[in-house]
Amino acid sequence: MKAKRTALALLSAAAGAVAAYYLTEAYKRAKAKCPPFRKRTYSNARELVDAFSVFWEQPELLLSIRQNPVITPAFAEKLMLTVTGANGCRYCAGVHSEMARRLGLTSDEVGSLLRGEIGQGTVDEAPALFFAQQYAISEGHPDQDLLRGLTETYGDRTARDIIGHVQLMTIANLVGNTFDALLSRILGKPSSGSTPGNELAVLATFAFGIMPLAPILAIRAQMACAIEA
Description:
Layout: H1 2-33, H2 45-57, H3 60-67, H4 73-87, H5 90-102, H6 107-114, H7 126-137, H8 144-154, H9 156-186, H10 196-210, H11 214-228
Helix pairs in contact: 2-10, 3-9, 3-11, 4-5, 4-7, 4-9, 5-6, 7-9, 8-9, 9-10
């Protein structure tokens, strides 16, 4: 019995050593392939809370965005791909690329939008796509002339809803990028504009603070719409 236990212990130790070796090698390969981290992230949890508070304080915006007849599902995906391409979030790129293809966009159209080639939009969509791109490039501070032009082109409601789409996508992009920043830090290529504490705080705020509030926000949006009606 004792010999059996000894053999099992040796076998477990050998398996652990092999696993540790392969994990170490995998880490080395990932570290060698990891480029310097340069994507935009949330630098602190306060920025994420402020971005979310726009919708928490005005829940009716979410329903307006979803029900706007001008912003078709395909148009919405083009906006999201444009913002995602500018912010460089690989997670959102994967999800929305698949959703866009299901709505009829070709792989070439999806790839072009992610590369910032907004010519894939129709004449009616082009001003909104250009605004979305510039919003991301300017880190949420687009030129006032662009804002005025957006309103002149689409009217108050649709312009507001386009901005809402862009803001929602930006939240998802920056949370995804913050997660990547933490992974990059683990691989020895930290973001110069962040700290481990801030990255963990942002991710914890999103996971335990914002995500649980999402269903409540949806209910509040429905209630706000009912009151207005």
